[in-house]
Amino acid sequence: MISSIEQDHQRFRQIVHGKIRKDLRRFISRGDLLGREGRRVVSIPIHDIDIPTFRYGDNSGGVGMGEGEEGEAVGQPGQGQKGQGGEQEGRHILEVDVTLEELADILGEELRLPRIRPRGQHRITTIRDKYTGIRPVGPASLRHFKRTYREALKRQLAMGQYDPENPVIIPIRNDLRFRTWNEVKKPQSNAVIVYMMDVSGSMGDEQKELVRLEAFWIDAWLRRNYEGIESRYIVHDVRAQEVDKKTFFSVREDGGTRISSALQCCKELIESHYDPNDWNIYLFHFSDGDNSSDSDNRLCVKILQEDLLPIANMFGYCQVASAYGSGSFINVLHESFPGGDPDESGPRLITSKVGGREDLLDSLKSFFMAGR
Fold it and tell me: Which of 58, 287, 313, 323 has the smallest number of CB atoms closer than 10 Å to its CB?
């Protein structure tokens, strides 16, 4: 039986989720949510929702008590004309904590995204301890209080030592009970996400912020679909290197562009650490579409066709608008892979264009509508 308080709380959470769904495009485009992230929970400011609360204070001043003359206005005068009330509508802001899993579910519901099915038999078996029973010996840290108390009570009742007027239960050594465990093998779906970003001179702070926002939501959706996720980061100009997450989003842009360097670095990373028989592999490349030469474009197509697409669940290419980039690389991909290099599950290569924050939702929908 669910208590009325629990029902009210569930109703409130439904209202919160409804507000988030209604303003999802705005929330996705806001960078401040990333700064509110912590321990898989995001704080979201929501307008026009308030929780009924008790307000404690001094109630000694009732109606008609205190200083003032008859006919004087009650309260403090607002801004503007002295002594007159304001005409602006109030804004009620409430910060609610929403887990990343809840955010991902809201994203999936709003975009009608299909849940991702792990590709093939890509599963790793992990060994975990599972408590399965009770035994009379064990370490003190695993002592089971309720079972110990029950044994002591049974013993005292059987021996006639239990006094209802003074119900003191004192366990002895033979009453102690401890949890016991077994090692169990649990199959676990695993996935790796490799983010690649062009950091040449044509990719400025605005472009990197768009990448940062999209990567946050990509990560949230994939983590909702897999039990184990690893994220790796590669930056490139004419050379590519693996970096940590902080460096990925803060490195300064400079130099020319050779996209094949990132794809080659990604290929070597996958070959060294992620067996396609055990891992679901998701690759995302972010660029303004400017590349050094036609010969490098051809090399990129070759690496994708021979090395990356055959092993990846998906290769997502996101082209962000830049005043300095040519934006031609997405056309190279469309010409080389007109159907997205499909397999039985759909296209493996998916592209999207992001001209500004308002395009992020559509980009996410492009990547994940296939449910790969």
Answer: 58
Beta-sheet pairing, 349-354 with 314-320:
parallel
CA distance 333 to 353: 13
- Please give the single-letter amino acid code of residue 37: E
Determine the angle formed by the axes of helices 205-225 and 100-111, rounding to 10 degrees. 90
Q: Report d(CA 75, CA 82) in Å as an integer.
A: 12
Angstrom distance (rounded) from CA 287 to CA 285: 7
- The rounded distance, in Å, linking the Cα atoms of 157 and 244 is 64
Q: Which two tokens stand for residue 78?
A: 């607002």
Maximum Cα–Cα distance for the chain, whole Å?
94
Please list the ranges in the chain whose pLDDT falls under 50.
Answer: 1-2, 47-52, 78, 80, 89-92, 122, 124-125
- Contact predicate 18/199, CB 8 Å: no
| Contacts made by residues 329-337, CB under 8 angstroms, sequence distance 24+ | 329/259, 329/287, 329/289, 329/290, 329/291, 329/297, 329/300, 330/289, 332/291, 332/297, 332/300, 332/301, 333/301, 336/301, 336/304, 336/305, 337/301, 337/304, 337/305
What is the SS3 assignment for 158? helix
C-alpha dihedral (292, 294, 296, 301), degrees to nearest 10? 130
| Pure H helices in the chain | 4-22, 24-28, 32-35, 100-111, 145-158, 205-225, 245-250, 259-273, 294-303, 329-336, 360-368
Radius of gyration of the chain, Cα coordinates, nearest whole angstrom: 30
Q: Which residues make beta-bridge pairs with 97?
A: 43
Closest CA to 194 of 305, 117, 280: 280
Mind listing the pLDDT tens digit for each residue in 40-65? 566 665 544 444 455 555 555 555 55
345 φ, ψ (degrees, to nearest 5): -95, -5
